[in-house]
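Our preliminary data section would be incomplete without showing what the modeling component actually yields. Below, a chain of 217 amino acids is followed by its predicted structure, encoded as tokens that our downstream tools consume directly.
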Amino acid sequence: MSSPNHDKDGNPLIQRYTPNERSNHWITAICFILLAVSGLAMFHPAMAWMAMFLGGGQWTRILHPFIGLVMFASFAGLVFRFWHHNHIDAADKQWMKQIGDVLNNREDKLPKIGMYNAGQKMLFFVLIASMCGLLLSGIVIWRAYFAFYFPIEVVRFAALLHAFSAFVLICSIIVHIYAAFWVKGSIGAMVRGTVTYGWARKHHPRWFEEVVKKQRD
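Predicted structure:
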């Protein structure tokens, strides 16, 4: 029987995400799914059937912006938690120069990676830009409360910005999910909160060394 610090085979585990961090992530993820399907339902008649996930067209129009506020607040929590892990450094610049090695899984030739690699960091900032675009444009086109404060030209531009930001966000999340499946063990890290020593040493060696050093100290 495995202990909290070991897997079922007795191999030692390292905590990558705390319960609060995982809860924060999954709240954001659930909100994203609800917003994606409801937003697509309102975007084009061919996808109107997706409104069923929020109880029909009227409820979709009512709930969509409120869920959007919840997602933004939850995502802001993630930004606050992980901002300090996403600064671009010299190792990240070298990682990007060796993108060929990255795509061919030659991780032994790459510089030592910390908590996140350069690709994850760039995605982090794209998500921030998309979320801010969605929030600002969403407020402008929120007819029940704010749209009447703005000229029609501004509302129309905000609608385009909202659609563009949503497109970028959806594409970014697809990349995020694909990468999670590509690097085996990543999804388990966000579900269970732990990774094996081998996983950490292979994919994020600098972070692994920092964690081990803290444990020894």
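The mean pLDDT is 91. The chain has one domain: 16-216. Preliminary results of this kind motivate Aim 1 of the renewal.
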